[in-house]
Amino acid sequence: MHWGRTGVLVSVAGRINAANADRFISRVHCAACGDWLVVDVTALESIDNSGISALDAINIRCERIGVRWALVAGDVVQHAVRHCGLHTVVPISASLTEALVSVQGHPSRQ
User: Torsion angle of alpha carbons 60, 62, 64, 65, nearest 10°?
Assistant: First the structure.
């Protein structure tokens, strides 16, 4: 995790699956305490349905608590997110720069 002045960047590598999805959700939920959150999963080798459900849970939590967030996803995650239709609700960015601009370029939450 990289803590910024008003938000957090979480980078994840390896795999997100049934064995670690709950831990992933917990760590990201703890990080979602500022104005913004960026989750960089470009280094993931694989993600299963538990990982996709985790991304959905993160999206719901961020919406509920008013944290702007973005997902930076490589091909593996983009394919999985599109396959299950989650790409219509999860804010996916093409690059880390794009994600940081998208979450930091808006006024602070009320």
Answer: 160
Running DSSP on this structure, what letter comes out for residue 70? E
What residues form DSSP beta bridges with 9? 2, 38
pLDDT at 11: 95
Helix axes 49-65, 75-83, angle to 10 degrees: 80
Q: Which two tokens stand for residue 95?
A: 């690059």
Arithmetic mean of pLDDT over the chain: 91
> What is the CB-side half-sphere exposure of residue 26 using CA atoms within 13 A?
4
Element (H, E) at 99: helix 96-104
pLDDT for 79-88, tens place per residue?
999 999 888 9
* Closest to 29 (Cα-Cα) out of 61, 7, 63, 64: 61
* Sign (positive or negative) of CA dihedral 27, 67, 35, 83: positive
The pLDDT tens digits for 47-75 are 999 999 999 999 999 999 999 999 999 99
